Amino acid sequence: MPGKTPDKEPVDNAGYRGGNNKMKGKGKKGEEEKMTVVVPPSKKKDVEGDVAMDVDDKVEEEDVGEKTVADIKSNFALLDRAVALFDARFTLRALRSVSSIRKRLTPDVLAQVISETYTATSPGAEIAAGLLKAIGREEVQLGGKAGGSEMEIDSEPKAAGKNGVKKEQKEIIPEVDVFLGILTQVLLHDNKQWQQGLEFSRYLIEKVQELNRRTLDSLSAKVYFYFELFAEQLAPLPPSSQSTIVAIRPTLLAALRTAVLRKDTDTQASVIVLLLRSYLLTSHISQADLLVSHTQFPENAANNQVARYLYYLGKVRAIQLLYTEAHNHLTAATRKAPSSACALGFSQTATKLLLVVELLMGDIPDRATFRQPAMEASLHPYFLLVRAVRVGDLEDFESIVAQHGDTFRRDGTYTLILRLRQNVIKTGIRMMSLSYSRISLRDICIRLHLGSEESAEYIVAKAIRDGVIEATLDREKGYMKSKEVGDVYATREPGETFHDRIRACLSLHDESVKVCDCFGEKGDGA
Amino acid sequence: MADRQLTTLLTQLRTPSLPFPQSTTLLSKAKLLLLQLSALTPSPTVPPAHLTLAREVYELGALHSLRAKNPDSFTRYVSQLQPFYELPPASFPSPSQNQNKVTALWLLFLLTQGRYTEFHSDLEGLSTRASVAEVESDRFLGYPIKLERWLMEGAYDRVWKAMKKGEVPSEEFGVLCEVLTPQIRREIASSSERAYPNLPFLSAQSLLFLDSEGAVVDFANSRGWIIKDRTIYFPTAAELNSDEEGGGEQEQEKEASQMVIENTLGYARQLETIV
């Protein structure tokens, strides 16, 4: 049996046992149920272990490290399972735990995990050495110096015979390699070791591409994500066209191609988003547009990726003056954004852009948007901006743009905001036209700070043509005369509105009836 | 050998008054030489000196084709220049003096073509190269940006002033402004039609920036305006459609009542299903 490498079952089984043994010591509640299937008594011990650990946590500092090691290892079992059952949900669960592990992760903890997982002779030793090198712990010996892992190995032979040690080596699946690789990336990222991080990511990507396993999909998406993050941090920083992100684009594009061919939706979605981000950072708008038109964003992509994609798409469309489209995408993006505090930055950024696009469309954003406690402070400059646009005060608008220019530039909305100037003027003219039945061009010019009377004349004429106001100009006497607002009730308007409302009521009634029917049938069935 | 030939060609090309046929032959020769140097497109192996030569050939090509009013060739040269402008400044011995000029001309060209989407996309790209304030205050780059802003606002008089002979940053801009002039005039005419009930001849002349009364008459005729007693009367929208709408009014009325009847019948039917 030990010689049969391709036969996975016994190996996997042993894996569960191994994982289970770890559980006994320091279990995670989440594992309990699955583990009990293999060895029933463990459940009891798990609970005990949990309680004991809670106490220990308070007392001993060292225990945090131990717990982290255990937490990381507990994920191996999940990955094992994901491979055995070919179910990506387990992989995702392992990835989700990264954020909680992240806070406690240190090079020493990771080194310990690596040394306990791999042995010096195992096939993964090379990878392990690479991992250790990346975190600057080359001196750590592989093969498990800690007592815990030896115990694992000790317990193994009982089930699998004398070759237990060898067995242990084989059960290290590539998913575990990559998972540890991601942890290494996280660690390097948190320690701001950008250059090492980039090199390590390159190495890891190579490994992932060599492996070509479908169970790696969601893991590799994460690998690319950190790859891009590292590249962004390296000097020269992104806006310059010599940034590292330009250099890594071919790699990402190749990854995208491969992902599409392999129907790897996780990597596909992730890489498309990364590429869009990269293009927008260097303002390669037309390339971003081409990317969007030549790729199809996977329908069943993760929600977060969809939100990001929509945001970037909205940004591209806004720059291209397609405000309606941009508005749709951005509204969807803000709605899809997770409501928890962890994604607050994204919601803020998306909301800011959405506000500007709404203004560009000639709408005035809802005041309630600015009242949300989490966003109030960061949206304040935009609030002032909206106020200026709403009143149509050109001077006020320009002073706000000058005052908060840096903020707007940082948010990447500055060029869009500059386009608002004409909207401010239009609003101003509309206000004039509503308040006065007749006003001289000179007064318009003074109030809207338009520079000259001639400009005012052309601008008003254009506003009339664009249907912003209903008025006529008198050239000789130099005034604008607003047209009398016609009687709305003489038109078809009220009838149409009435019809719309009736239709809405009727469809509501129909839907209610349908729902009632549905329940009725169900009731009958039961 | 080839680069020396190229340098002599370039000195010849630098004279702005070069007639177009001559410049085209010189340019094609220059491009052949570039091909020999394998510097047609920037690749990491091309030495900086050759890159500079290639860049200048394309820049001069763009300027010459603009002077000769050849938009296709201008577009081609500008797209060939793009990869050169994307290169880090360190790969050239000296920064290009014509880069801002060519970029500004390209932006203005996009404006005359009404390609606002590309205009704004490229503008966004510019803001990464330098700060926005720098771009706006640049003699060349600021020009198309200002024009676009005024055009959007409708401040045509300022556009007009900026397009006068002495105001354009360089001779090539004038060529594009000539293209822009009739477009602006059309814009003004279409807004005037809606804004004024009638317009005296002299006002129309100054409003439309026309040189003589004869030009006003020609222009008015071309737009179908009615001239009476030295005043232009604009046909109102209703009058324009009056010919077709003689019977149209009645039809509309009929349509309206038909709609009301249909709606009411619909309500009745729905009510029946409900009750």
UniProtKB/TrEMBL annotation, chain A:
<dbReference type="InterPro" id="IPR050756">
    <property type="entry name" value="CSN3"/>
</dbReference>
<feature type="region of interest" description="Disordered">
    <location>
        <begin position="1"/>
        <end position="49"/>
    </location>
</feature>
<keyword id="KW-0647">Proteasome</keyword>
<dbReference type="GO" id="GO:0042176">
    <property type="term" value="P:regulation of protein catabolic process"/>
</dbReference>
<dbReference type="GO" id="GO:0008541">
    <property type="term" value="C:proteasome regulatory particle, lid subcomplex"/>
</dbReference>
<dbReference type="InterPro" id="IPR013586">
    <property type="entry name" value="PSMD3_C"/>
</dbReference>
<comment type="similarity">
    <text>Belongs to the proteasome subunit S3 family.</text>
</comment>
<dbReference type="GO" id="GO:0030234">
    <property type="term" value="F:enzyme regulator activity"/>
</dbReference>
<dbReference type="InterPro" id="IPR036390">
    <property type="entry name" value="WH_DNA-bd_sf"/>
</dbReference>
<dbReference type="InterPro" id="IPR000717">
    <property type="entry name" value="PCI_dom"/>
</dbReference>
<dbReference type="InterPro" id="IPR057985">
    <property type="entry name" value="TPR_PSMD3_N"/>
</dbReference>
<feature type="compositionally biased region" description="Basic and acidic residues">
    <location>
        <begin position="1"/>
        <end position="11"/>
    </location>
</feature>
<dbReference type="Pfam" id="PF01399">
    <property type="entry name" value="PCI"/>
</dbReference>
<protein>
    <submittedName>
        <fullName>PCI domain-containing protein</fullName>
    </submittedName>
</protein>
<dbReference type="Pfam" id="PF08375">
    <property type="entry name" value="Rpn3_C"/>
</dbReference>
<dbReference type="GO" id="GO:0006511">
    <property type="term" value="P:ubiquitin-dependent protein catabolic process"/>
</dbReference>
<dbReference type="Pfam" id="PF25573">
    <property type="entry name" value="TPR_PSMD3_N"/>
</dbReference>
<feature type="domain" description="PCI">
    <location>
        <begin position="307"/>
        <end position="487"/>
    </location>
</feature>
TrEMBL record, chain B:
<comment type="similarity">
    <text>Belongs to the proteasome subunit S14 family.</text>
</comment>
<dbReference type="GO" id="GO:0043161">
    <property type="term" value="P:proteasome-mediated ubiquitin-dependent protein catabolic process"/>
</dbReference>
<feature type="domain" description="CSN8/PSMD8/EIF3K">
    <location>
        <begin position="98"/>
        <end position="239"/>
    </location>
</feature>
<keyword id="KW-0647">Proteasome</keyword>
<dbReference type="GO" id="GO:0008541">
    <property type="term" value="C:proteasome regulatory particle, lid subcomplex"/>
</dbReference>
<dbReference type="InterPro" id="IPR033464">
    <property type="entry name" value="CSN8_PSD8_EIF3K"/>
</dbReference>
<dbReference type="GO" id="GO:0005829">
    <property type="term" value="C:cytosol"/>
</dbReference>
<dbReference type="GO" id="GO:0005634">
    <property type="term" value="C:nucleus"/>
</dbReference>
<protein>
    <submittedName>
        <fullName>26S proteasome regulatory subunit RPN12</fullName>
    </submittedName>
</protein>
<dbReference type="Pfam" id="PF10075">
    <property type="entry name" value="CSN8_PSD8_EIF3K"/>
</dbReference>
<dbReference type="InterPro" id="IPR006746">
    <property type="entry name" value="26S_Psome_Rpn12"/>
</dbReference>
